[in-house]
Amino acid sequence: MKLFPALFLACVAASCLPIREGEALCLQERSSEPFVVGDAATLRVGRVDADDFFCADENSRPYRWHSSDAGVASVDGKGRLRARKPGKVWVSVAQDTLRDSVQFLVLPPVARIRIEPRGGRIRVGESAVFRIVATDAAGNPVPDAEVEWFSGGLESSFYGPGERGPWSFARRGATRAVWACRPGRSSLQARTRYLEDRVPLEFLPAAKPGAAADTALENHSC
């Protein structure tokens, strides 16, 4: 498997250790994507050298794997990681004198997500803030649940004045501001790796139609 040069740069900047001149190991999974308790994944690793800007998949080669806290996440001799309880853990891999390590975040299991408030009306040029409420199987709150937000149509945008980006582009976070671009109806969606919720939204004409509304949206991604 090949990765793009941008990921190679991330590997080098993050934690690849060039023990040999012009050569390093690189774990292809970086720490930007958290695991959830119960998740399992086979980590991929490859060599980076001066003649190759990519991390080549070298899983056929023998590696030594180690977890800094097997209670949070364990890793076996084949690089298979299993998330066991919430927390942070460093996973390292070595081959001869080459090493790399990455810190992973393990999140609590989430049984339900709910967007609050349950919909609303927003005037063109204005915004409203929504938040995610996540709970476990017993109904207890799960803080810092990792969710992605999606806009259901061209009537709204996640980008405010001075920002640029596609209307329905996914954005992460526990809260999300939604800007009204044009009158109409749409929906707001929030997703985890396994769950989804959505609420209806209605977008009303600007409070002051005409030049004032146009000016308000001039510096807006709408």
From TrEMBL:
Q: What protein does this entry describe? A: BIG2 domain-containing protein
Residue span, BIG2 domain: 59-100
Which species expresses this protein natively? Longimicrobium terrae
Question: Which stretch is the leader sequence?
Answer: none
Q: Which Pfam families match?
A: Big_2
